[in-house]
Amino acid sequence: MWCGPEGEIKMQLCEIRPGEPVNLNTERLEEICNQLGYSGGETAICAAMEDLATMLHQAKTLWASNDFGALHATARQVALVADRIGMAGLAQVAGNVRQLSDGRDAAALAATIARMRRLGEQSLLAIWDRQDLRL
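Above: the chain sequence. Below: its structure as tokens.
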């Protein structure tokens, strides 16, 4: 907020877009493809990506409905799937959601779910951009 030339009060709004680097273990993706063959690896990675997208959406819905038990279970699954396909950062944040899912700190839980969803989306895009994956 500042004063204009005639003493009027001026306000400026700014948009905050939080972001952070994606921690993607590409060696894990290569390992999956080496174990299952390219086609099998691609299928497994795409299935995991679809599962993650669904679970990230569910997390928001579960939080909004105060279903903290189901949120805890969903965050656990997000962490397991993310870890399996090399998304270490997402797995860690999902673990944070699990810790906060007791519902005692609503603001921290809301912020951490938003971070999990944002990092999840960025991680999914990073894999999609890195691989020639087709659904």
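The two ends are 49 Å apart (CA to CA).
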